[in-house]
Write a structure and sequence with these properties.
Radius of gyration: 18 Å
Number of domains: 1
Strand order of the largest sheet: 6-7-8-9-21-17-16-14-15
Shape: globular
Largest sheet: 9 strands, antiparallel
Structural class: mainly beta
Strand content: over 45%
Order of helices and strands: EEEEEEEEEEEEEEEHEEEEEE
CATH topology: Beta-galactosidase, Chain A, domain 5
Distance between the termini: 22 Å
Number of strands: 21
């Protein structure tokens, strides 16, 4: 696996078909799209009509006074992630980011982000490692979205953090077109949401084929964070520090997070 770095993108590839493209030229946040299996099936959507700020595999949070999620340039609280330094070596990309308000004020985090990709030994998967070390530059409070999920038991489940927008086909009900697993056991999206599992796997069929192939996305985290999973309206999966609770963050506090994302051809 190698990384080809230009001003606007970083292309991860071990063949002519890239494993993924890390978009650097976005006005709000860098993100991975397309994220592809070794067979070339795309596992992500970027800027769909219903949520233009959903961009492949991305990381964003929301503070009480600064919003890095919704991407509303007309709003006074619009936050952006500014790339300060970037380098690539072998299969690994390293990026220094400054999280701030779009006018350069309210500097909130300085982040060292490391993204690496390798092909599995059986050749059926690309395995990504996304590391984020974010130091708080000021006191602030991480808060949930106004549209956070309200479960039947009264639990509020937010969706900020590392999130992925899978193909539209993966929203259909039943087990014919897709399915979700929590730590290796079948689960519903509702059962995944609010749960602190280490691993969530979402498999689904791919459109455009008479005999449609099946692929899977598996996300793993060991920080003890809860998950957000949505399937009925559109497919979305995320995990992060403010999924269940608002968090008061003191200046100098460091979030040190490691995630693994596996994109796999099942047949």
């Amino acid at each position: 696996m190698k990384v080809d770095l230009t001003a606007d993108i970083a292309r991860f590839s071990d063949t002519e078909v890239p494993a993924g493209v890390y978009v650097l030229g976005d006005s709000y946040k860098p993100y991975l799209h397309p994220l592809q299996t070794p067979a070339g099936h795309c596992m992500t959507m970027a800027m769909p009509g219903d949520h233009r700020h959903h961009k492949g595999l991305m990381y964003a949070l929301r503070c009480a006074d600064l919003n890095f999620w919704e991407e509303s340039p007309e709003a006074d609280d619009c936050g952006i992630q500014v790339s300060e330094e970037i380098s690539a070596e072998g299969n690994t990309l390293r990026q220094q980011l400054l999280w701030q308000r779009q006018d350069g004020e309210l500097k909130t985090y300085r982040e060292l982000r490391t993204i690496a990709c390798r092909r599995s030994s059986d050749g059926r998967s690309y395995v990504w490692t996304w590391k984020s070390r974010r130091e708080a530059l000021r006191d602030h409070r991480l808060v949930a979205s106004d549209w956070a999920m309200k479960k039947a038991d009264g639990t509020r489940v937010n969706y900020h953090g590392l999130g992925i927008r899978p193909p539209w086909m993966w929203r259909f009900s039943g087990e014919l077109f897709n399915g979700i697993e929590r730590d290796g056991r079948p689960a519903t999206a509702d059962e995944v949401s609010g749960n602190g599992a280490q691993t969530v796997r979402w498999w689904g069929t791919i459109d455009g084929y008479r005999d449609p192939p099946r692929c899977a996305i598996t996300m793993t985290q060991k920080m003890g964070y809860a998950w957000f999973a949505l399937k009925e309206d559109f497919p979305y999966l995320s995990t992060g520090p403010s999924i269940l609770d608002d968090i008061s963050v003191r200046k100098g506090f460091v979030f040190d997070e490691t995630y693994q994302i596996r994109v796999e051809d099942l047949q």
